[in-house]
Amino acid sequence: MIGSAPALTTAQTRTHKKGWLSYNTLRKLVPYFYVSPATFLLVLLMLFPMLMVLRYSLMDGAIMKKDAAFAGLQNYITIFADPVFWQSVGQTLYFTVMSVVFHFIIGLAFALLLNTTRVDPVIRSILRVLYILPWLFTAVIIAIIWRLLLDPNGVVNSVLSALHVIDFKVEWFSSTSTAIHALTFANIWAGYPLYMVSLLAGLQGIPKELYEAASIDGANEFDMFWHITIPQLIPIIVSIALLDFIWTMQVFPLVWMTTGGGPIYSTEMLSTFTYKLAFARYEFSLASASAIIILIISMSVTYFYIKHQQRR
Predict the structure, then answer these.
(1) What are the helix (H) ranges across the chain?
(2) Burial bucket for residue 252 (CB in 10 Å: 0-12, 13-18, 19+)
(3) Is 272 helix (H, G, I), strand (E, B) or coil?
(4) Alpha-carbon gap, residue 96 to 88, rounded angstroms
């Protein structure tokens, strides 16, 4: 009896392994079962639409024609030959780069102000609430606010006229020479709180011993800022800047609600250019090609973001 027990156990084990799935295999598959609903939604809501857009970009008259023929790269060639496309590329880069740069400058300045001990804590609390207000508004609200402020009869023109800076009513969003700058300014105002909050958290995480040691060595405030503060914040700055570049390049509601890409394409962005191709001209194949180009640009920046995160 005692000698036959191990043989019985071995037989049971073999029988268990001969089943459809072994116990160990099931244990390995459990994590995949948990993530399968999210994976299914990801494929359904993101991957599948992306593949459909890629397919449309290679067709002639997608959606509009019942039997759309394969067009190869002709839609991309048409897009690249369109001067409005290249104008929108240049304006998108200007809008994006200027926004990212001034988001960082303003966000860092306000973060330093909120982190200093020279300002009364009560005042800092009030300023913290005021500075973060633009982050609470939706793009539609921001567009309405700045359309009212920059109206020819609005507050900005009234203040500038009272200060004798201008002697006529400037049509900020209606002039080809000022529209892109006014739009960029509105986006800068709306986006700096992200940098402010992130950099403020980074400043509060820098060890005070570094500043004390630098002070003992005779370093002034600028030296400490340049050689301690900035190097400590570099990982946060790079991460936020890359994300901000990706998000800003695809901004649509603010542009559409203020200028709509006009006047005369002076504020046309890649997002509005693609939207008009699809829903104004019903050129869904060209719109799909333009969307794929935007995707490639975004994925290129995303690649650098991922590499940066891996190095961290």
Answers:
(1) 5-17, 23-42, 48-57, 74-80, 83-115, 121-132, 139-149, 155-162, 179-204, 208-216, 221-224, 230-249, 253-258, 270-279, 284-311
(2) middle
(3) helix
(4) 12
- C-alpha closest to that of 304 among 248, 223, 262, 243: 243
| Side chain identity, residue 285 | S
Q: Could you tell me the CA-to-CA distances from 251 to 26, 39, 66, 78, 255 in Å, in that order?
A: 45, 27, 33, 24, 7
Cβ proximity of 163 and 150 under 8 Å? no
Nearest to residue 293, comparing CAs of 274, 276, 266?
A: 274
pLDDT, tens digit only, all 312 positions of the chain: 444 445 445 544 444 454 566 778 888 888 888 888 888 888 888 888 899 999 999 999 888 888 888 998 999 999 999 999 999 999 999 999 999 999 999 999 999 999 988 888 899 889 998 999 998 899 999 999 999 999 999 999 999 999 999 888 999 999 999 999 999 999 999 999 999 999 999 999 999 999 999 999 888 989 999 999 999 999 999 999 999 999 999 999 999 999 999 999 999 999 999 999 999 999 999 999 999 999 999 899 888 888 877 776
Q: How far apart are the first and last CA of the chain?
A: 62
Q: Phi, psi at residue 138, to the nearest 5°?
A: -80, 165
Beta carbons of 172 and 178 less than 8 angstroms apart:
yes
Q: Domains (ranges, CATH) in the chain?
A: 74-310 (1.10.3720.10)
Helix (H) or strand (E) holding 70: strand 69-70
Q: What is the pLDDT of residues 130-150, one digit of tens each?
A: 999 998 899 999 999 999 999
Residue 195's CB is within 10 A of a number of other CB atoms, namely: 25
